[in-house]
Predict the 3D structure of the following.
Amino acid sequence: MAGLSSFISLSIDGCYADANGEMSWAHNQDPEQAEFTRGNAQGGARLLFGRTTYDMMASFWPKPAAAQMMHEVAKAMNEAPKLVFSRTLTSADWQNTTVKSDLIHEVKKLKADGGTDIAILGSGSIVAQLIDVGLLDELQVMLVPISLGGGKRLFDRVRRRIGWKAIETRSFKATGNTFIRYQPT
């Protein structure tokens, strides 16, 4: 069975986006964290996005500026098979992208197909839906030391109690960010 993991940046008050849907506060990387990101991008997983995150990623990674800034990450992002879930998007221009609308059904099929693992990048509402139905195997959080005072909170849409076990942590001194890998218990 294919594993399903999620990587998401969260503020210390649990938000993945501020009250205006803005996520620029989460993009404070130092050289150490950029190296970590390059290593993470080499995982070879199939990528899964919600519409908002897909639009953001597709507007950056295929561009020459992305290749100049982070060549390895841009190459991996562009070559990876990508699946975007949307009720309104009917086609996608970013190479290797398929559009689907039935999230839970399709993710169950992907996990059962025994193919390569699946990684969700960002896409907070998608992550919450998959957590809520017990399909997420690992939650990777980049905890950013900022309090937004409101916004889109990851666990507001999760309707059941779930215990989490931290299996890895790593702090980045220059930014104060902390990476934490959790598995549901």
